Amino acid sequence: MAGTERRIRDPERKERILAAAAELIARHGYLGVNLTDIGSAAGIVGSGVYRHFDNKGAILVALFDRVVDRLIVDAEDALRTSETPETTLAALVRGQIRFTIGERALCQVYLQEARNLPEQDSRRLRWKQRHYIDLWQEVLVSVRDDLTPPEAQVLVHAAISAVHSSLRYRNHLSEPEMARFLERVACSMLGIEPLPGQDDAVAPARLRVDPLVG
After folding, report:
1. Does pLDDT of 211 surpass 90?
2. Which of 14, 5, 4 lies closest to 211, judged by CA?
3. Residue 68: is it exposed, middle or buried by C-beta count within 10 angstroms (0-12/13-18/19+)?
4. Who's near 170: CB < 8 A, 6+ residues apart?
5. Under 8 Å between Cβ of 95 and 71
6. Angle between helix 149-164 and 119-143 (nearest 10)
7. Which of 146, 171, 175, 192 is deepest in the core (most CB within 10 A)?
8. What is the spatial distance between Cα 29 and Cα 22, in angstroms, rounded to a whole number?
């Protein structure tokens, strides 16, 4: 019976649940949203959410996994495909900006709701987050031989935090303008030049089905 239930689950419905949850939690906070709210926003009854998630906490964990897994995949792709350490680092900056602007609600949840994660999942996700930062740090040290590893770590966190700062307020820049400005700022902090074609810094897609997230 359990196998039959898994076969009839609709991945598009699961995606709608995650998208609805990200928007609602970003707007009202994790504690201000319940499964009925999420189901209604996703166009299904609240009980239908249980076909995909055991509880609200499982939804929050899935959203966090979505963020970290996507960023790690993008970072590892930049490491494989960029020709030099400088262009790799610039690609990491652009990838962070594309994701942050393209998935604003999801990233707001990621920044604001870590305290509501179950402890076991919180530890697991912290390990993934450290891995992501380490990828940046290793590239930066290879580009900037004037930096010690601790100094490189500070700069990486500062550059990513500069990108994330755009999530904390509403501004009067368009998304392309914001992307170009953030790219210049973050690259300047790291001591590198942005990639050419800065209009590509804006991601056209929103929350999408990702095979890394169960």
Report:
1. no
2. 14
3. buried
4. none
5. yes
6. 110
7. 192
8. 10
CB half-sphere exposure, 207, CA atoms < 13 A: 24
Up-side HSE of residue 98: CA atoms within 13 Å toward CB? 18
C-alpha span between 193 and 115 (Å, rounded): 36
**Token pair for residue 60?**
């929050």
**Torsion sign, CA atoms 167, 173, 176, 179:** negative
- Read off the pTM: 0.84
Q: Would you state the structure tokens that stand for residue 8, as one six-digit string?
A: 């009839």
pLDDT tens column, 50-108: 999 999 999 999 999 999 999 999 999 999 999 999 999 999 999 999 999 999 999 99
Cα separation, 95 vs 114, whole angstroms: 22
| Angle value at C-alpha 93, between 89 and 96, nearest 5 degrees | 135
CA-based R_g, the chain, Å: 18
Say how far residue 64 (Cα) sits from the centre of its chain.
Answer: 8
Q: Which two tokens stand for residue 12?
A: 């598009």
181 CB contacts (<8 Å, ≥6 apart)? 173
